[in-house]
Input
Amino acid sequence: MKLKFGVAVMERPVIYDYLDYRAFLREMFLFRKQKDTYFSYRYFSRKAGFASPNFLKLVIDGQRNLTNESIAKIAKGFGLKNQEREFFENLVFMNQASAHEERNHYYKKMISAKGYTSIHKLDKANYEYFSKWYYPVIREVVMFGDRNHTPEQIAGLLDPAIMPKEAERAMKLLTELGLIRKDPNGRWEQCEKALTTGPEVASLIIANFHREMLRLATESLDRHSGETRDITALTLSIRHEQMPEIKRRIASLRKALLELACYHEGPDQVVQINIQMFPLTKEPVPFK
Output
């Protein structure tokens, strides 16, 4: 918003600021309505080529989804430029996708857009951090020994191994995100900073992280001996109302393990601990 003659006036919404296409359409419509008093849902439909006079309202209210054809018409109706149209199309497809891989595909295209990266460089870095297993690992490894490791040394410590250029890129990104830094003596140290992202992509990047770690857990069955890993499982029959208590106990175990890791200084190994619980039967229904 900006003031004009003492009256608040909306600025044209920037498509790259949105991760929900319906929110963008809502604010774009309000912007045009304020700018041109004659602008209405009926006027927009006529301009964009829709037969239904309230098609845009149905989309904004979540009662209609968009197709390739309707995406093109809406982009034309709002006068989106080529790069804006491409971003809008990928945003729509990401929002409407039901499969994780599909949503991931379109989000990658979105954060690669020139207009997006110039505004949200940190968001792209956050996404990359959670999408590669060795980024959080390297954040821990820099605390080993004299804390003066080179990318080549870091790469050689990881299992499975990565290339030195990958370690170098990781250390640069971790520094950009404010997760590690050099102290006055030139030694690496961790920064106490939490990474956050919007709710629209939080589930996406968290799922990426867990998929990466579950893949490594599967590979560990062949890569590591039984003495260096612990992969066990329980298959239980429970009452549905016991689920919250099981989740509480798992959370308590995570907290206890985290406290245990904090008791000792001078770490010399990084481990990943995965604890999973998921249903193997459908939601319970009362037996008659």
Strands lie at 2-4, 7-9, 180-182, 188-190.
